[in-house]
Amino acid sequence: MIPATQIALTGSFGKTTTTNIIYKLLCEIYPLNKISVTDINLDTTFNVPITALKIKPWTKVALFELGVDHVGEMSKHLEIVHPQIAIITGITPVHTDKEHFGSLENLIKEKRKLLEALPENGYAILNYD
């Protein structure tokens, strides 16, 4: 189990920008060695486990960007990530073709898994737009 507070975010847009903003805010509170953040240059398949591996016992906050474009991908991420805070930047009909989610409904179900993974005392931050 990762001892740090875990923040996980997903959405159809704005994930990387939101990750960067949160990271900059966290840097105002904690020294850099107390924060672990997703490497946005890596494919989402690799960035979640690599981010988890970078976490040290002294890490205070782990920030995960969870990009998904297929059914079942969020569940794989959530085998590693156990967020106390979940952020959904917004959902639009991207990746809804047959090669990806197949429908907007499937996309929403997949993103919803992040919220369902929150503990009872967790926080969900949702885009109202």
Automatic annotation (TrEMBL):
Alphabetical UniProt keywords: ATP-binding, Ligase, Nucleotide-binding
GO molecular function: acid-amino acid ligase activity; ATP binding
Signal peptide: none
Boundaries of every Mur ligase central domain copy: 10-129
Gene3D superfamilies linked: Mur-like, catalytic domain
Key word Nucleotide-binding present: yes
InterPro entries in the record: Mur-like_cat_sf, Mur_ligase_cen, MurCDEF_CellWall_CoF430Synth
Keyword Disulfide bond in annotation: no
PANTHER family recorded: UDP-N-ACETYLMURAMOYL-TRIPEPTIDE--D-ALANYL-D-ALANINE LIGASE
Protein name: Mur ligase central domain-containing protein
Organism: Candidatus Roizmanbacteria bacterium CG_4_10_14_3_um_filter_33_21
